[in-house]
Amino acid sequence: MPQAEENPRFRKAMYLLILALLTGYIGFKGWHLSVAFDAWENQSLEGAISGAAK
Question: Which regions span the lipid bilayer (predicted)?
């Protein structure tokens, strides 16, 4: 912990690392959700399914 308090360059690098990881995570989850919704929209059910959620 003293390194972050003594060295502002280290603190800035850590903030940039956190920001990069967060941006990557949000981008990956956005892509993941778009793939899931594309698969869900293209899925068709043949006829009526009894007991299906409405």
Answer: 12-28
Q: What residue type is assigned to position 2 of the chain?
A: P
pTM of structure:
0.62
Look-up: residue for tokens 């990069």?
20
Token representation of residue 24: 């990557």
Containing H/E element for 17? helix 8-41
The rounded distance, in Å, linking the Cα atoms of 50 and 26 is 38
- Check: CB of residue 10 under 8 Å from CB of residue 3: yes
Cα distance between residue 26 and residue 48, in whole Å:
37
Residue 51 has which token pair? 């007991």
